[in-house]
## 1
Amino acid sequence: MVSETVSTFDCEMMSKAIQLAQKAIYSCPPNPAVGCVICREGEIIGEGYTRPTGNNHAEIEALMNCSNPKGADVYVTLEPCSHIGRTGACTKALIKAQVKRVFISMIDPNPLVSGKGIQALKDAGIDVVLGLMEETARSINRKFIKFITEGKPWVTVKIAASIDGRTAMESGESKWITSSGSRADVQKIRASHSAIITGIKTILMDDPSLDVRIDPEDLQVSDPIKKPCKVVVDSNFSIPNSAKIFKTEGEVIIATLRGKQQMEKSKIFSKNNVKVLFFDSSNDQVPIHDLLDELAKLKISSVLVEAGATLTGSFVAGSLIDELVCYFAPKIFGDSALPMFKLPIKNIDSHLALSLKELRHIGSDIRMTFAPDKDY
Amino acid sequence: MVSETVSTFDCEMMSKAIQLAQKAIYSCPPNPAVGCVICREGEIIGEGYTRPTGNNHAEIEALMNCSNPKGADVYVTLEPCSHIGRTGACTKALIKAQVKRVFISMIDPNPLVSGKGIQALKDAGIDVVLGLMEETARSINRKFIKFITEGKPWVTVKIAASIDGRTAMESGESKWITSSGSRADVQKIRASHSAIITGIKTILMDDPSLDVRIDPEDLQVSDPIKKPCKVVVDSNFSIPNSAKIFKTEGEVIIATLRGKQQMEKSKIFSKNNVKVLFFDSSNDQVPIHDLLDELAKLKISSVLVEAGATLTGSFVAGSLIDELVCYFAPKIFGDSALPMFKLPIKNIDSHLALSLKELRHIGSDIRMTFAPDKDY
């Protein structure tokens, strides 16, 4: 919440910082995407955004751009860090630069450090204005916020379907339901997640590559896109060595059950870019909650589920979804085609209630983004 | 197409005539909805729209509003009639009134009279400007155009569903999927059709009244809403005498098969407001094509299908749909719930392709209006 008075110029500068933050979302995870603008006397004298992990934070990038930041106003989308991490504390750099005021959109969501950066700035006599464009800043970092506060990856489920809610023919035939515009859009969504999860049935039926085929230039960003790793839920370890998923860039994780057959099979996959995670299970299914916990340990802060009705249904049933992105093609497939979610709900009051967050035409398709209702 | 030059004033006046035409759609069928504005020296001197069948056409209404239409410009959304029907030819009245120019949005689609009204006006020395706002005028009268050119009623199918394409639980439980806003919107759609078709399963399961419960004031129209008749597709004549549909205003048509049992049962329903139509069939189903032909003979120019997956699927399978209106509620019902269309399509290339015509938020729901693609 903005408690102090801000000018339209301040709004404009923070909006600029927000735009810079957006440039970081494809390269900075598991760090938050942050943008920073430094101004003096109505002129921008420096700007920057979070570089890939291990490199500069936004504030350092912006300060490095300035010749003389003394007495300047700083606009930053997230509370500057006060701890000495891989890159040195940003608060320390701002204090050393003798800036006058710091506008901050949102407090660091990490409860362990939250507020400490602001306190450090205030202790050094720097004015702090908090809350400008907070909602937008939170939205950009919604995946990071969940990861840092709950220790679990953000889960987006993506589905392409006909308007009667069918994702493939009974035979499994499904290429291509949606238009090329929607498929290009899915590329952007993939690029903004740390991992893509699919099921073994999808691998065996469609043999998808699940890779990101867009260039940073297409996204108007300068840092390389951090390719999401690909996770296959494969209880029996049935994936063939020839699957396309192994032939594309980036790591593949096989989530399988702890068993003799699986242990044996894993030896064949002892390649550089394949990791096997073994799980115990009471029902012959890889436990999705445990899988997400394991992925969190690997610093995977967000996952995109691109799977069939069974696996997608398990995510719904497990109350694990944060965002549902549906691409509806203006087509009717009929009732023998495959459903969106395998999910037996008997009573109408037991349905999963969602809120529509965004509605867009993409080519001839309609993209709808939903969030599950709170009591889900 | 507009071949002559028109002014912005002309556009404004025709737009006014279009708005007047829209006021007639709930009361004028099976006649077309027409609006008329008469102007002299930049001032509106008369206006009118089609009154209920047997009453004045728009032009006569507008002329009756004028004290002196001599030398005036007339804006009318459909070619004035030249035949003497129940209300006298409009061209004759315009000629007698000695108007100077007539702007017409679209030619009368009836191939038997099309162009004759324009010719009559020209023969009398009146200037005619054709095609102004033709597309909008055609859209308002799309139901009439189909009826008059093809001799078959326009067919709209309305479905309320969850985003995973489910219209009810497995048990049939379905109240209420969509929000009150969507249900109010359905009232308007019902009011703009001449008949509502449903299936016996829906009657037995939901016992809907299928009536129009809005007042003309809610629609900002002055004439009474012509209540659509209610048609039940009921091969075995299983409808109970106690069905709610019989207790509401307006005619009920039972479409059943020609059989001894049905003939017997029909005697019980020999009430004033119930009509029974008997059909021959090779597969124990009422033939939908024949039903629509019979309804056309009864001057029913448009039907709204509000039914379950079986009957709705038959309309899709029979290539009978002109417009599909879907209300999607932001909910997930799961795969054991009932489908939108019972329609076995085996091959992905055999899907029914649609074009999205309109997309709107209604309350928490999303309304999508589709037209089937041409080769359907």
## 2
Amino acid sequence: MATKVDWRTLASEKKIKQLASIPKEWLDRLATAIPPPNELDVCSYPRVCGLLNGRELEITESDVPSLLLRVASGEWTAYEVTAAFCKRAVVAQQLTNCLTEIFFDRALASASALDEHFKKTGKVVGVLHGLPISLKDQVNVQGLDSTIGYVSYINNPSERNAVLVEILESQGAVLFVKTNVPQTLMWPETHNNIFGRTMNPNNRSLTSGGSSGGEGALIALKGSPLGVGSDTGGRVATSIPASIRIPSACCGTYGLRPSYGRVPYAGCANSLEGQDSVLSVLGPLCNSIDGLKLFMKAVIDSKPWTQDPLAVCKQWNDEEYQLADHGSGKELCFAVLWDDGVTVPDPPILRGLEATKEALLAVGHKVIDWVPLKHMEIYKCISSIFTAGAAEDYDAVTAVSGEPIIQSMLPETDVLTSEPPASKPSSATSLSAYQLWQVQKKRRILREEYLRHWQDTVTVTGTGRPVDAILCPVAASTAPPHGATKSANYTGVWNALDYTALVIPVSKVDQKIDVKRERNTFYNATDKAQYENYNPATFANAPIAIQVVGRTLQEEAVLGMSEIVDAALKARRP
Amino acid sequence: MATKVDWRTLASEKKIKQLASIPKEWLDRLATAIPPPNELDVCSYPRVCGLLNGRELEITESDVPSLLLRVASGEWTAYEVTAAFCKRAVVAQQLTNCLTEIFFDRALASASALDEHFKKTGKVVGVLHGLPISLKDQVNVQGLDSTIGYVSYINNPSERNAVLVEILESQGAVLFVKTNVPQTLMWPETHNNIFGRTMNPNNRSLTSGGSSGGEGALIALKGSPLGVGSDTGGRVATSIPASIRIPSACCGTYGLRPSYGRVPYAGCANSLEGQDSVLSVLGPLCNSIDGLKLFMKAVIDSKPWTQDPLAVCKQWNDEEYQLADHGSGKELCFAVLWDDGVTVPDPPILRGLEATKEALLAVGHKVIDWVPLKHMEIYKCISSIFTAGAAEDYDAVTAVSGEPIIQSMLPETDVLTSEPPASKPSSATSLSAYQLWQVQKKRRILREEYLRHWQDTVTVTGTGRPVDAILCPVAASTAPPHGATKSANYTGVWNALDYTALVIPVSKVDQKIDVKRERNTFYNATDKAQYENYNPATFANAPIAIQVVGRTLQEEAVLGMSEIVDAALKARRP
């Protein structure tokens, strides 16, 4: 019998291989320009590090529509666009540790093929022609690993592309990097035993969020014009949901959580496979809503249901995007969820909501208060569903390598430096199938109640319609210090209800304005810990974001309404 | 402590109440005209029993569109239409025992209200104005029981209407009866300890099928112009799926199994609640495809997703109905599944498929063979999912009344006459949540494989498209004698894959043509038992039907293609 290779050896070999996939010349040039760890805000670094020339900076700072237009007009080649983003992604990697698989050769070869096609035919191959797209580690690309943070999955390259990869490439997208995730995918921060921790480029002492934390950091630094993340909703021990939205909010990007099955998931690696009730979904992160919309329309127009049996057979609906069911967007009624009764948002979060409310009122929309309904019960339901079989799932995967299951995201518990506690996640929460069904039944009833609750707002909006969209925090806090995330009830509830939710960055923490407010009563221990955790200095420069929440399978309408919210906010900025 | 009432007492009191809900005068008039039990084919009895006059016969034998047209034009009133169907439903009840709740007073009052509205405004209230609709027992109507065959649920009237009931009534439908089901809903025959057994009107020694067997018998006798059934897919002990389609095929009606969530299910009683993986669906049974289409369009146009969070937000798509994705229906390529490798169909079933093939070739369509992929594996998967928690579910429900769980559909084991074996359904098949996830994961992979398999047919159709629809048996046998159903793999596989499937009646068993064919090799014991069970005399006059199968959420296209199949078949009838 062959001696089993120690998991630490496998992990460090993988990390060495990763480093070798970056051009040595770039690393050398960056080596002398790397900021010290105590330099927290590194957002401006890609502009000043010297690796990118003026044209490369212009390319990487273009928005998605202009980028596509300039490639489609022949002004820029797919090759030079890709090369520019490869460089900038490496800068982002050196600053925040956001990447996993790096495959520039493959990317540049496919960009060249696109240019060749364009030269020959004068036509683009599809609506994403020449657009570099980054992928969360779990999206399978043929020939590359999808470790999803597990040592057990090292050296196990994907045999075939995920359906989404097939679709993106058929539309001309250039895939070039995969991005970091937490071990198990089920954490709202990003750290694992192979690639380590991803930091927040706005303040490296803060988390980038998770589980799509690599994407959040990369997109925020413009190391990729558009990224694919995933949004699931629940972490075993503490029931903290992992998502697209938390990294978007932490890092200051836009991000969309579509409904179950709107974006094809087939062929992706995942945790808790076979859990058919609260489905993980794929969705885009980007620095503008334009990009989110473009991605969604491109994917849906490719009829993903002909390749993924779980992709919903629903065509892109332009009337819904034009807000046909929302009075054509003329006088919308938004409702603000200020406080979900589980955790009270920190001062910067409330300021973000207030600014959004004012901005919308200023352009003639209505804004009322949203009354939350049983958010704690809903949150507990999905937590029970995830924990029903999670311990066995994690055990089965980690047993292969012997790697321990990470117990905390706190830096001092990093297993690469100090051995974690021997205890495994409790399986005390494991359920029988019948018990699981009882929880799932309860959740179905809560979904029915919530829908009626929403419909009933027709009596208070004055528009003749129920509330058009809910505005709410993405989390009770802006990006917390590493390991300090206390809760994520403001995202998890929408996973449970399968509502479409879009994150819009609003502002950043300002130590002068966002002072701590006196509070003496608390909903629960988490709420208290959350309160005690807050002080404006710790959260300096952290982005502030809001969520725009619409109903199930209403991606078009949520994009349309979010554009209105975003424009209103931008109109009031100095 | 109050003495617990014996379950037999509760059951017989309920049955007595049911009888009291039928006008005594009608019962008296029918009493003298009831055919003896050995009169098997009772299809012509409603015409000759004398309870319905000429106009009532004309009304009850109209197809759905003409019926709606004549009410909308004022030629017939909703009241007289409803009254005629009430009478005919009672005839059907006396012949086949197909009803559960009978609520003629409520129906006639709501018909009168519709007539009043029409008289005042000259307008119909909706597209179903004045159409009586029967409901499978599980569809909750406020104030009425939904026992779904369980004594425990007697005297437990629904507090609110199911979402579908709200929608149908808002469109002007008149609900008037609920129909019989098997105890647990999970049998492909129809018998329970409260209402007893439903018989097949074509041959009362045969089953009406199940679990929508009451609907099958009622619609076949034209005791209702349109009925709502449900289609689930699995019976614990023997894994025999219960459906809309088996009763449709057994009784000779049309029936549609839509995809998960296309018709709102919220507010219905059900078995195995919280089982979120292989979802039960509601769908229509009718004597024409017109009626199925009308029902689906009316329901979808009512935006059920605003009332049921699990209803898919997908509007009715007329382009899909016009077969935009299928070459506008000009040269379709159908593929016939002659044999699924699990059970070989009986001679009449094969004759039905051959007739369909010839009819389609005659009008210029292509017909190739369908190669089944892993049907046994797929079938086993959904069986494991159902049995994962079913024993506990049945125990929990029956414990309330002490009623035993029915072990067999054989008449000689009827618990009302002889006590059943003391043994309960085995919980040896019960799973943990994690084990259930592993089965669900396997099923997801099988769904992906099946979709690729279907897509790959693009190379053999010659149309430039994959196969447009699969034609296949509804079961390996026509309606078997009571208790003799051996398998239902030809329906269950499509529940597992969530494909849209429509049943079309083709012919009836002809003892001269459908002779037994010599076979010596068998796939398995069920296949052998199925073969040995067949002889043309036993199955005399049993309807022969086929299924037209399309993809998930393609109800519009399946309706469109089924109309083409149906017209082709009708064109060749003498």
